[in-house]
## 1
Amino acid sequence: MRCLNGGLRYTKDENKRLVVVPEEAEIVKRIYREYLEGASMLKIARGLEADGILNGAGNERWHTSNINNILRNEKYIGDALLQKTYTVDFLTKKRVKNNGIVPQYYVENSHEAIIPREVFMQVQEELIRRRIVHTSPNGKTRTYSSNHCFAQIVICGNCGEVFRRVHWNNRGKKSIVWRCVSRLENTGLFCDARTVLESTIEQVLVTAINQTLCDKDSFITTLRDNIATVINRESAKELADIDKRLEELQTELLKLATSNADYEKVGEEIHHLRDKKQKLLLESANRDDLKKRIADMSTFLKKQSTALAEYDKQLVRRLIDKVTVFEDKFTVEFKSGVTVDVNE
């Protein structure tokens, strides 16, 4: 097995420029794809180990820090952050991490990209989202879990807390149920929310999906209107103007850096524009993600010709965003924005 080059999946040509190594770039693409599909960093790492893929240092063992660094590295979208490290001793060539001692400058499109910019931005948004998946009314935060597809998506309609999976042994009868965490731990919230069998939640989701299939024409029209609203909020021209100015500034920056001239003013403008662009790209990534979710729901409704006969875990991961449990009903929210009530 070929060692992954320096953890970057690039090699250098005779002119010292970064060049993509195709078979190694596939590993980066796999990591980004699996993360956006819902896998945890630990699960991705274990999968790479199981397939005999070496990490950037040539070791069999992958750590979550390896995955985290890959998901955050701007090099994969063709950009470069200059002066991440700096030389402290010119005789020994010793370099240390730059913690703001000397200026850092960001250059876009400095080499061939492995990951599309919009995918990279979706991953950055997902990294933020997973840090705090749910905030309870008492301020407690719940972090992301990929252990079960219901984790963090089943919410109590009474106190607003999440439901947790419990293996129950009630008078010798074993079952798997979901209970509000306010009934399992001291959250400071009194809650008498009902306990729900896992099989009941599964059936509720089948019913909710089948309801959208029964009235698919109406839902498809709603989804079409939703995607039109999303498209109308786009700001392509503003991004294009920023890109044009950044290109001019980056050319100027490289000339100044080569001549050892003062490039502080140019660097500050680049920083300002990059911050502005980052916000626009994040908004764009959110819109792209929503458009993808709406399109995914539309495709499902168009292609699914019959009602679901049984629970489908992968379909739930793909379509469902949240299930709120009330005393007399469930409210199922789809990732596309569609909401369906299932009464009991």
## 2
Amino acid sequence: MAQQLELFDRWEEAGTYHTQKYGFFSLLVGSARKHQSSHPLVDMPRVLSLIDTSRDTWLSQAEFIKPNRRVVNLARLCLLFVDMDTYRQPWAQGRSPEQLADAVLFFCHEEGIPPPSLIVFSGRGVQAKWLLEGTLPRRALPRWNACQCFLVDRLATLGADPAAKDASRVLRLVDTVNSKSGEICRVIHVESGPDGHPVRYSFEYLAEILLPLSRQEIEEQRQRRIERRQLKLLDGGRSSNLRGFSGRQLAWDRLEDLRYLVELRGGVVEGERMLHLFWRLNFLLLSGATNSTLMYHEAAALARELDAAWNYRCQELMTLYAKARANESGETVEFQGRKYPPLYTPRNDTLINLFQITDDEQRKLRTLVSRGIAKERDRERHTARRRAAGAMDRKTYESRSLSRQKPWEALGMSRASWYRAGKPMPAVETSPSVLLMAEPGRV
């Protein structure tokens, strides 16, 4: 096993979960004063080979569309991870890194959690990493966050760091020193798959095991709720698991819609920049993709996206910051007998009026649509399902109808007589050429 683990240098370990596609990764270097830099993914092998391994170095676990590791610039995700501060736990005192890995594997087995693909000794604690088959797009971030939260909560006994679960997180780079202990960060366990490489998991498989509801169950619940509403048996109460997850996904999709709206309009006018920044940041916080600690960093990235030369005033976001802190502490706001998070949860109509979104723009957005556009989309989906099931369109149906073909006229009968006669059909005419070919003796 030791010989196998020696093969995992800093590039080979990073290469198990980083692609060489378009986008960027980030490095954080230093101890007292840290320096951050971002580099194209295609340059990762060269950049990592130039790292000074005697310095504390951290590597971003996700990939980004811009040269910074803000979650609003997320490109893709390739793994789930948990950073465990085992050195703080009494049970871990005096244990070797390999014994810590055995403890993590045993605990995962007891809890029904698939074993991590890699376990890395960070110099004092351990990092558990579950590699994914392929990559996750940014739209899957809410489900990814839900899986991260589950893993951190379940592994809290082992010292899982609750602050180290976001997509913008950096973890110590293999082969580099941890200056606090003098130890070298290294791979201490590899869970091999059938091909001899670190095992990779389907994200859907992990989500089904980790989340309270699988995607199929969520869809089934949604369909049942629709049917119950149609039968007027539902009073509008909320289903905690489904609504909680759907709320985070809805907030993320609204953020994406507001960003795409600016693309459709070719930019944002000066007087509307703070309006866009405020609501984008609100939905980012509501999605659970960031928190109050990182809020202003994400705000800076969003502001640069709106206008690279814009120096916005942080004071205008203080109310949002206070609401984010209240949300993180578990506070709720009650309205008409229902509880809501302290952050803003406006209706679609409110946002459509606020941003003056036209019908043509709504048709290109995912969630910011009026009821009329939503019904239009529903009709289109219903039509598509009927076509897929073999139903013909109305024009074809009508062209084949008896009222259009009028077979009684070809028989010289009235319609009533034709029906009384048992609806006989006129004989099919055969072309002369076919009759000639059918005659005996014809070649």
